[in-house]
Design a protein that fits this description.
Blueprint: E1 11-16, H1 23-30, E2 36-37, H2 85-96, E3 105-109, H3 117-123, E4 127-133, H4 136-145, H5 153-171, E5 177-181, H6 182-187, H7 189-200, H8 215-229, H9 234-249, H10 267-271, H11 274-308, H12 311-326
Helix pairs in contact: 4-5, 4-8, 5-9, 8-9, 9-11
Length: about 325
């Protein structure tokens, strides 16, 4: 399954982590390390390799953001029936079209790589994995805010836990793994660029790197504390905070003290309201179901409208949108 020639000398670096975990900015910065080449201007979402191949199913085919980790087909290992010589060749050829031939460190970022590390290591023997974690509150709330996930918040927590717990089981089979927290990365990105450069055998080029900030995390933490203390549905948020706390603490995060604060005064009140918490979860799931149904109905309507438009009108509308994006001052006119 290993190709001969120059490509045997290449290293393959896979950036892994759930959506909204900082994988995109991290991958773009790592792509600027010496002798590294990543995907750029591919025309697919976030330049993710999953959309440039047809060997394994994409996140969307497995349920979408916040859901795909529950699908058994998302967890691929070296025992996968998809790992055939023909498929390995197809996968390599699909991605090598976009990597620069004169560079020997090839980088690919897809969030669901987190569940495919063993599969990718078998397909690309000289592989390295960079695994980033971000606080589950920030990940779950960000996916809801950006409409990447139509799951209720506790389902988002379950998904976070399932994916990283599966990775914990897979990790012992991997030869080269580097792990970091998003919260640590934004505090000192230069340090992590240097450490990762050393890990994959190159040099850091800190000039021209994208800046990162902790402002987004703070907003999510503030919003979470507000929901737990002031929301009309605070019993729901308090309940899921206590329910998942011990599991998240074992992985280095806290829902009770998301920013390291001594904020555990809610525990006694929540523990006495088990039935209210469960009822609240059922209500949240029902709300999420209605949300998903509405989102899908709107999507189907849009697709039907696009399909019915004359080609000339479609091109005209696309031109107006491009003009609006390039020249915001003309957006109202468009």
């Amino acid at each position: 399954m290993i190709e001969g020639g120059e490509r045997q000398c290449r290293k393959y670096v896979f950036v892994c982590g759930l959506q909204r975990s900082g994988t995109s900015v991290l991958a773009r910065n790592l792509g600027k390390l010496e002798n590294c080449t990543g995907f750029r201007n591919t025309g697919v979402v976030e330049d993710e390799g999953q959309y440039l191949q047809d060997v394994y199913p994409t996140n969307n085919e497995l349920g979408g953001t916040g859901w795909y980790g529950f699908n058994p087909r998302a967890h691929l290992t070296e025992a996968s029936e998809l790992l055939t010589p023909r498929n390995v060749t197809r996968l390599r050829e699909s991605w090598h079209k976009y990597w620069e031939e004169n560079k020997s460190i090839c980088l690919e970022k897809t969030p669901s790589n987190l569940l495919m590390t063993r599969f990718l290591q078998a397909a690309f023997p000289n592989s390295y994995f960079i695994v980033v974690r971000r606080h589950p509150i920030a990940v779950s709330m960000a996916n809801q805010r950006w409409k990447k996930s139509t799951a209720s918040l506790h389902v988002g927590f379950e998904h976070w836990l399932r994916c990283y717990e599966l990775f914990e089981g897979d990790k012992k089979h991997l030869k080269h793994v580097y792990e970091l927290k998003y919260e640590d990365y934004i505090e000192n990105p230069a340090r992590y660029h240097q450490e990762i450069a050393t890990f994959i055998g190159t040099r850091a080029m800190n000039e021209g790197m994208e800046e990162v900030s902790g402002a987004h995390n703070k907003r999510y933490f503030d919003r979470w504390m507000q929901l737990m203390t002031q929301s009309s549905f605070r019993k729901y948020y308090q309940y899921i905070a206590v329910k998942y706390e011990s599991r998240f603490v074992s992985l280095g995060y806290s829902l009770i003290r998301p920013a390291g604060k001594n904020d555990d005064v809610l525990l006694p009140a929540v523990s006495a309201s088990e039935w209210i918490g469960r009822l609240s979860c059922a209500g949240a799931d029902f709300h999420a179901f209605l949300w998903r149904a509405g989102t899908r109905a709107r999507g189907q309507t849009k697709r039907a409208i696009r399909k019915s438009l004359p080609p000339a009108l479609k091109e005209r509308l696309k031109g107006l949108l491009r003009t609006a994006q390039k020249h915001p001052d003309k957006a109202n006119v468009a």
